């Protein structure tokens, strides 16, 4: 690891009174207090700007990264939670640059608005790994990206629906659909929406009544579903761009006195496949879930170790993912789920 001297080095050396400090990181706590930490020179220092904790998926993703990038594994992780705000992520990246971390891992909340700060990281010689979501920037500004193929997920959901409707003898019927979208401009939102739409365009009898932003949260998902139920009497399908919004949608549907799932009158499709989504499928509330695997930690660890060894890594790396529906042995699969 390169020797790093953050902006707090002078202060830290004074505090240390000349002790053998080899690498020092300064962390700013949420209270604005400066916290000076001595970091073993053998550790790879990684600044990780996480989006927030908007969903079960996000919490599993955070846990996976924290469990992989440990001191035992040779890392010193500086974790910053942006609380769903891009400005906080930009601030975090700038603080990582000031601290001269070895690598920056960024999960960008939306795809746009990253050019300036990622250019700053490049100018400082700090490799940036984009994780989970993409940034719409020149590809020279990041080393690689690890995440989900959201457009394929959306397409799979559309193909699953076509097959389900055909088996139910409803392939000629008018099908009215609404979508609870994830945060507007996020890779997972853009990909899932586009992928589903490509299939929708092939079915003249499918109509997208409306798509509304549910921000990937359960509360917003419920609120948006309440609005849609009040506006449209005849919804056949709800595409929820993540599990937490699906949980909110199910609550709204129940409260409106309607039914959903395989035995209900509204088909619910979701993305992520967290444990609670298995519970919802087992309970008969959700029809099918398209997996988005949050367990990025081990792959990130591998990427960082390869870069540290001077190796090149694939620019685009997808997680392995599948789908689940109520025709499967969900109880057994649920037992094997790590999140
Ligand atoms: O970017 C991945 C998405 O972000 C997950 O589907 C969602 O649950 C999360 O908030």
How would you sum up this structure in a few lines?
With 339 residues, the chain is α/β, with parallel strands linked by helices. It is 38% helix and 21% strand.
Give the distinct bound molecules. Answer: alpha-L-arabinofuranose
Low-confidence parts: 1-24, 26-33
Overall structural class, as computed from helix and strand content, comes to alpha/beta
Order of helices and strands: HEEEHEHEHEEHEHEHEHEHEHEEH
Amino- and carboxy-terminal Cα gap:
33 Å
The appropriate CATH architecture of the largest domain is: 3-Layer(aba) Sandwich
- Output the CATH topology of the largest domain: Rossmann fold
Overall structural domain count: 2
Features of the shown structure:
binds alpha-L-arabinofuranose; disordered N terminus; alpha/beta; 339 residues; 6-stranded mixed β-sheet
């Amino acid at each position: 690891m390169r020797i790093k001297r953050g902006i707090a080095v002078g202060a830290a050396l004074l505090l240390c009174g000349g002790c053998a400090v080899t690498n020092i990181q300064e962390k700013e706590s949420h209270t604005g207090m400066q916290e000076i930490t001595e970091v073993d020179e053998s550790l790879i220092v990684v600044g990780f700007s996480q989006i927030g904790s908007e969903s079960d998926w996000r919490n599993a993703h955070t846990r996976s990264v924290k469990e992989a990038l440990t001191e035992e594994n040779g890392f010193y992780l500086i974790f910053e939670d942006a609380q769903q705000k891009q400005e906080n992520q930009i601030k975090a990246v700038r603080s990582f640059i000031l601290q001269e971390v070895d690598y920056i891992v960024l999960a960008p909340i939306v795809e746009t608005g990253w050019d300036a700060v990622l250019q700053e990281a490049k100018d400082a010689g700090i490799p940036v790994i984009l994780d989970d979501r993409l940034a719409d920037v020149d590809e020279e500004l990041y080393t690689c990206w690890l995440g989900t193929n959201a457009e394929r997920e959306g397409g799979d959901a559309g193909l699953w629906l076509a097959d389900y409707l055909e088996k139910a003898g409803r392939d000629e019927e008018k099908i009215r659909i609404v979508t609870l979208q994830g945060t507007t401009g996020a890779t997972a939102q853009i990909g899932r929406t586009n992928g589903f739409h490509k299939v929708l365009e092939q079915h003249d009898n499918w109509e997208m009544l409306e798509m509304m932003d549910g921000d990937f949260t359960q509360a917003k998902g419920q609120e948006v579903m309440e609005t849609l139920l009040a506006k449209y009497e005849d919804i056949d399908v709800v595409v929820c761009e993540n599990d937490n919004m699906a949980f909110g949608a199910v609550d709204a549907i129940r409260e409106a006195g309607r039914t959903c799932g395989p035995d209900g009158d509204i088909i619910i499709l979701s993305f992520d496949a967290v444990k609670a989504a298995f519970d919802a499928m087992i309970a008969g509330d959700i029809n099918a879930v398209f997996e988005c695997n949050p367990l990025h930690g081990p792959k990130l660890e591998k990427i960082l170790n390869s870069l540290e060894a001077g190796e090149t890594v694939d620019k685009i790396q997808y997680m392995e993912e599948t789908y689940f529906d109520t025709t499967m042995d969900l109880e057994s699969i649920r037992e094997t789920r790590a999140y």
